[in-house]
Design goal:
The protein is built from no helices and 11 strands. Strands 2, 4, 5, 6, 9, 10 and 11 form a 7-stranded mixed β-sheet that branches. Strands 1-3-8-7 form a 4-stranded antiparallel β-sheet, with no helix packed on it. Helix content is about 0%, strand content about 55%. A hairpin with a 6-residue loop joins β5 and β6. With about 120 residues, it is mainly β.
């Protein structure tokens, strides 16, 4: 079973950049699509970005297109989310997840907190 650990969050000012990391251990991480999701206070968790297992395909939520870039290094069992031009609306806990044959895994990690101040 794959275990995912998110890191890299922090408190930044609007316009700044952050890079989040999702480190995997166990299971078949490298053969799965991996996605980033986020949950803002008082809101439901929402999709942010997804990358296919060999990085051929990447998709983004409209709200982050042109600002966020998802990438992966299968040799390091790690997926990244480069976030540029951060906005206050990007404030949320960010989670990564793997896509299983039946859909996204129901096991969520602790996430990493991103706070963007005005």
């Amino acid at each position: 079973q794959v275990q995912l650990v998110e890191s890299g969050g922090g408190l930044v000012q609007a316009g700044a950049s952050l890079t989040l990391s999702c480190a995997a251990s166990g299971g078949t991480f490298n053969s799965r699509d991996v996605g980033w999701f986020r949950q803002a206070p008082g809101k439901e968790r929402e999709f942010v970005a997804v990358i296919s297992r060999y990085s051929i395909s990447k998709n983004y939520a409209d709200s982050v297109k042109g600002r966020f870039t998802i990438s992966r290094d299968n040799a390091k069992n790690t997926v990244y989310l480069q976030m540029n031009s951060l906005e206050t609306d990007d404030t949320a806990v960010y989670y990564c997840n793997i896509r299983l044959p039946a859909g996204w895994s129901t096991d969520w990690g602790q996430g990493t907190q991103v706070i963007v101040s005005p």
